[in-house]
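Title: Prediction job returns without error message
Component: structure pipeline
Severity: low
Priority: P3
Assignee: unassigned

Description:
Job completed but the reporter wants confirmation the result is attached to the right record. Sequence as submitted:
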Amino acid sequence: MSKFIWCSLLILIGGIACASAALNPAFAQEASKDKSNGQNDEFQQALTLGQQLARQGRPEEAIVELRRAAKLRGEKCAECFLTIGQIYFQLGKLKDAAVAFRQAAELKPPNEAELYNVLGVALYLQNEKESFEQATIAFQRAIELGKGRVVKAYYNLGFALIKAGKEQEGVAALRTYIDLDPNSTDAGQARGVVANTKMVDARFAPSFAVTSHTGAELSLEKLRGKIVLLDFWASWCLPCRRDMPEVRKIRKTYGDNQLVMIGINLDSSRPLFEAYLKEEGITWPQYYDGLSWGNKLARLYDVFSIPHTVLIDQDGVIQATGLRGEELANKIGELLRALQKGASKRSAGK
């Protein structure tokens, strides 16, 4: 499976969350009405139990109860099928997930457009020629129903069309997405694929534009053409403290000509953060927002443990994550040599 597919997992999870949030009010109203009429008590019990079992990590039992709830409702419970699809997806059963999402969408709930977008991603992830074509149909349906409201569908459609061999149409869809949401975290990836459709399977780094602890602008888009190292750390993290001399060594070895180092600090106390910078002589840019594990960039890059590094090449593609010490230094050297070699070839060709 491609690196892009792992990025798509986040798109799918986000899509499901949005779909659930939008659908739940309508479901709740329907459930309340049923309960007030004294009807479908058994349905409500099965649905509630299924959802509880899913939250408890008992997927097989949850599916049984959710299917029972759907049957009691005459197979017309969009929430039942949506939740079943989520469970199958988490189990890696993408074909079963797609079937469930389609069942939910075909019931025409309030969030039908979002459900077709989710269905498209489940089909895309199957990574088969036929499934790419089916995914394009689902994404187009999401766009049609949403009347442009489901912006992410244009992004997903672009990738599906390119994978289905329809590059021009795919590029057009991605350009529409960029026009509609130029500052999104996925806009950089869309631009990269528009520039070179062979990058469709690349794992692009989520774009960001933030301010450093000294007030300087830190924009990943503006760093294209350079190697970028994101180093996630905190002053209270002992492994981070042990690794800091190696990080300083990398800085000293490669400077900041073609390598840009950005520290992302997860401290919640600015005085402690700044005291450590002074103590260790850290002069390269740092992003600090005082939110600890809620740090904006830590959430953007799904960082759950530190120290952690993300190494991004000149095209904005993630080349490595989690490297430390000598292994990290060697990989940086490799990327810088490749970058310099490419620059030399371009100069010779002029």
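Comment from assignee: result matches the submitted record. The longest helix spans residues 3-36.
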